Amino acid sequence: MSDLQKAYDSELKGKDVVIIAVAIPGESKADIDQFKTNYGVTFDVWQDNDDNYKDPIPKEGGRQFPLEVVIDREYTVVYLENDYYPGEAVKAIKKAL
Prior knowledge:
By secondary structure, the protein is α+β, with helices and mostly antiparallel strands. It is 32% helix and 18% strand. The strands form 2 sheets. It has a two-stranded parallel sheet with strand order 1-2. A two-stranded antiparallel sheet has the order 3-4. The radius of gyration is 14 Å and the shape is globular.
């Protein structure tokens, strides 16, 4: 996630980009705030207390987190990865701009 924050700060801020993280159920506001502090995250972290995160995630991929999704201006999913590969989501964001 730090690569997203660095890219946002250095290249994406002020462009038509929104980054949102979703905390899974069980994470308290204090946990989220601590996470944001520890990792220097300035974008929004939404709290999902109703297990809604499970609905759009393909089950065949195995684990559900981390999940990175990039949606372009036409609301098309242009990147969906059920794992974390540093820099790949950033590349997809740049391509979608």
